[in-house]
Every structure is written in C-alpha cells, then in structure tokens.
Amino acid sequence: MRWSSTSGTAIRDYLAERKSPYSAIVAFSGEHEYGGQTVTEASLNGFPSSQIADRIREDPYRFLVCADKFQTGYDEPLLHTMYVDKPLSGVRAVQTLSRLNRAHPKKHDVFVLDFQNDADTIRKAFEPYYRTTILADETDPDKLHDLKADLDGAQVYSPEAGAALPGRCRP
C-alpha cells in the first residue's frame, strides 16, 4: 500500500468499520483525486491543515498518516510507531526516522516496521551523524507468525478482513 491521501482514507474507513473509538489524521501536500473527487488535507480531516500538529494530541486521534510531510521541524513526543513503505536513504532516512526520537515521560521505546529498507541501508544513512549506530537486527519472521496467531486468537480482525489485506497492500 502506498502511504498517500487514499491510504489515510482507507485507514479511517477501516477504523470506522471496526467501530474503533480512534480516528486518523491525514497529512499530505497539494490536492489528490480520491473516489472521483479532488481532496485536500482539510477536506478529509474536517479542519485546516495548520491545526494538524495540535489536533494529533487530542482525542480521538491516534494515527497520523503522512505522505512526504512532517519530515523536518516536527517535534511531537507522542509519536511512537512508524510504518515505512518507501525507500529511504541518506539524510531523508535520518530526518524521517528521527521524528520518533522525542522524549516523553510515558514513552519508553519506539518501533519502526520497515517494509522497504534493509538494516544496512539505514545504518549507512545514520553513520555520518553518529560514531556508533546501533540498530536492532532484522525481525525473526517467526515472531510475525506468532503475532498473527495471537491476533487470530484474540479475534482482532475478521477472517474476511485478513484475507483481503494482501490485495490492499500492493502498490
């Protein structure tokens, strides 16, 4: 799935379908076509783009879906998890991944699930800025299978939604 304005809308639709108490905010530049209409951040979010940084701190928002936005100058300590689905290298990798490194009393770690980049590419991107770059090794694939089994057992999603997911995740 490409993280774009349409992805943000799909996530919001999915949250509503699941009757989740949480909502997503989308952040992208310009105008895009979605469902035969021209959409903007403001039209999808229901408030001006200038309020995104403040609104993400409020209920019911728990997700910020970005497409090439907030890579520099955005200092939000509540950000914890990032899903990356595009190639990152050099300073862009550093800027993007560094959005998570802001301290918060209730934040003890961060998590990045990267679908595109290998650990060596990211390590090389950070090397000019640090004497030692320490990254957790790539995840053992069995951990993902174990997580899926746990989620299946907890009935976090329906079998139909799970079966439809691979088709939705193609570029």
Q: Tell me, what's the shape?
A: globular
Structural class: alpha/beta
- Beta-strand residue fraction: 5-15%
Radius of gyration: 17 Å
* Helical residue percent band: 25-40%
Low-confidence stretches: 1-5
Strand elements, count: 6
- Termini distance? 5 Å
Overall pLDDT confidence? 82
Features:
globular, 171 residues, two-stranded parallel sheet, 15% strand
Topology:
Blueprint: H1 5-17, E1 23-27, E2 32-34, E3 37-39, H2 41-45, H3 52-55, E4 61-66, E5 81-84, H4 90-97, E6 111-114, H5 119-126, H6 141-154, H7 159-168
Parallel strand pairs: 1-4, 5-6
Antiparallel strand pairs: 2-3
Describe this structure in words.
By secondary structure, this protein is an alpha/beta fold. Helix content is 36%, strand content 15%. It contains 7 helices and 6 strands, in the order H-E-E-E-H-H-E-E-H-E-H-H-H. It has helices at residues 5-17, 41-45, 52-55, 90-97, 119-126, 141-154, 159-168; strands at residues 23-27, 32-34, 37-39, 61-66, 81-84, 111-114. A two-stranded parallel ribbon has the order 1-4. Strands 2-3 form a two-stranded antiparallel ribbon. Strand 5 (81-84), helix 4 (90-97) and strand 6 form a beta-alpha-beta unit. Helix 4 crosses helix 5 (119-126).
Précis, in short:
This protein has 171 residues and is α/β, with parallel strands linked by helices.
